[in-house]
Amino acid sequence: MIGLLLCLPAALVLGVGFVWPVALLARISLNRTTDMGAMEEALSLETMAKLVEDDFTWELAWNTATLSATCGAIAVALALPVALLIRSAPPQWRGLLSLMAVAPLLVSSTARVVGWMAILGDRGMINAMLAFAGLTDDPVRLINNWTGVRIGLTESLMPYACLVLIAGLGRLDSRLEEAAATLGATRTRTFLRVTLPLAAPALAAAFLLVFVLGVSAFVTPRLMGGGRVFVVATEIFDLALETVDWPAAAAMAMLLLGSLALAMALRAVVARVPR
Amino acid sequence: MSHLTLEALTRRFPGAPHPAVDGVSLELGQGALLALLGPSGCGKTTTLRMIAGLEVPDAGRIRVAGRDVTALPPHRRNMGVVFQSYALFPHMTAAQNVAFGLEMRGTPRTDRPARVQEALDLVGLGKLAARKPRQLSGGQQQRVALARALAPRPDLLLLDEPLSALDAKLREEVRDEIRGLQQRLGTTAVFVTHDQTEALAMADLVAVMNEGRIEQLATPEAIFERPATRFVATFVGRAARLPATVVRPGLLRVGDAELHAAETPAAGAAEVFIRPHHVRPLRDGESAENTLPATLSRRTYTGDLVTLDFTTPAGRLIADLPGGSQGSDLRVGDTLRLGFRAADVRVFAA
């Protein structure tokens, strides 16, 4: 009873700050936009239908999904060695190493983008080095395009992947790897036959989390894409604040929310299948 | 010729004040079972892990079947290890667990199913081959772990407290099974335990360890009846411990009494150990090498044994008598004479 009572403040904040705005958004998505561009109170799926019929919506969805999947997969792949290293480190070092792995989260994503600009820009660190080495005449475009967004998004997702993997692999009993070694397995075979299969649930959980975060990422695609990269999140922003087509922005947001919920449900079903 | 030889094996963990294992040397013959017995932190598990190759010794050598394996990684040592927690692969069935070692050791694919079945039949689990570890009971998991360790026909079977996770009744059953299997297959084995009953019941040879060193390496009988050090006498079995003074070789002053002992240290302060099963009540006119008048102060009935606490001029003595035997019906306050042999009085310098 007291436990429930103590949860009340959090429930209140969630209700006012999340549930209510989403409900409002859902209501707006059912409104119509007149030919003049004004919002008209209605209860119709017209706006949503228009979006679904529009090829550009599907292009956006495809862009967003492939971007998040690629960056998410790379982030998880890069985080795995980090998590494995932290797991095998002496206990007194694990805390510090874990903190270092997730330290990028302590820096605002806008500040990180500015950092990337200094590194990836036409006159940034990498291009300066390439030019100095005489490898390139013209600067390689590493930012303000899809390449830039991929680099930035992967980097910003990695700490989350680390966080999930460190927690997931921490529960993996190192005796199992020792047992494999005593049975004649080399380190490589131990990794492929024992460590990796047992880490699979953690890898899946990490991928799902960073995929979802990637789909809803706005700052990185917006700032590192230089206006040339269009994903669902940037489109919602443009619809709401540039075109000022609130019903369309709300409908797009609801479609995104719906597909993410579907992905989560799918994952829950897959996880319940006995292996 | 010895099958397993340890030479001055030493392991010091970084930052630890004392070495975990400190110059352990021993030899074990082919087909014998050695128990490393000692309290937690005595270095027995570290010794086992060094033999397996899971821990690298700072000094010393390990030889198995004439081959120096000290520098070899675990996967090149051909040893079967049963871990305390069994460490079965949870994502594989019992059969796949057993097949893993065969595959890694290069057993031809066509031979594997028969070898897996053979190993599982050996531990009586032939019918549960398709089960995952979580679908097996603790005792069954233990048996799968044993089958997995034995299937590749290892040079040495290493067991780290394999019975500690089982309940008392099952423990005895599995204990006898492991021993029977080890003898039948003629596999040389090393067994780590803190349970003296396990060590005494299973082993051909017991090494009692304390603070990284072997206190005594001997047969179970010798360990129990003729402990070499005060630590062994204290750690293995129960005993009445009495402060004493060595008067001259063979004669001790214990409390207000004089006792004869077969072996005594140099004159001076000492401690006397007398095991409960060596002390017996004497009939009228019966004599013994040591006799003491005694008064029964407490009687504890445990079914097959009656434990009697006596007050004597030498101090408090304990006697274990089979339930229903002569003297077992004594009552608190009864007085009588106790007798025991000089050879059963163990004396250590204090």
Automatic annotation (TrEMBL), chain A:
Q: Name one Pfam family in it.
A: BPD_transp_1
- Which InterPro entries does its entry note? MetI-like, MetI-like_sf
User: What is the protein's membrane topology class?
Assistant: Multi-pass membrane protein
> GO CC terms on record?
plasma membrane
Tell me which residues make up the ABC transmembrane type-1 domain.
61-267
Does the record carry Magnesium as a key word? no
Q: Which family does it belong to?
A: Belongs to the binding-protein-dependent transport system permease family. CysTW subfamily.
What is the protein named?
A: Putative spermidine/putrescine transport system permease protein
UniProtKB/TrEMBL annotation, chain B:
Q: Which GO terms describe its molecular function?
A: ATP binding; ATP hydrolysis activity; transmembrane transporter activity
InterPro entries recorded = AAA+_ATPase, ABC_SmlMolc_Importer, ABC_transporter-like_ATP-bd, ABC_transporter-like_CS, Mo/tungstate-bd_C_term_dom, P-loop_NTPase, Transp-assoc_OB_typ2
Record-level GO BP terms: quaternary ammonium group transport
Q: Where is the signal peptide?
A: none
Sorted keywords for this record are:
ATP-binding, Nucleotide-binding, Transport
Report one GO cellular component. Answer: ATP-binding cassette (ABC) transporter complex
Q: What range(s) does the ABC transporter domain occupy?
A: 4-236
Which superkingdom is the protein from? Bacteria
Q: Which SUPFAM superfamilies match?
A: MOP-like, P-loop containing nucleoside triphosphate hydrolases
A Pfam family cross-referenced in the UniProt record is: TOBE_2
The record ties this protein, via Gene3D superfamilies, to: P-loop containing nucleotide triphosphate hydrolases (3.40.50.300)
Under PANTHER family, the record lists: SPERMIDINE/PUTRESCINE IMPORT ATP-BINDING PROTEIN POTA, SPERMIDINE_PUTRESCINE IMPORT ATP-BINDING PROTEIN POTA
| Name of the protein described by the UniProt record | Putative spermidine/putrescine transport system ATP-binding protein
Provenance organism: Falsiroseomonas stagni DSM 19981
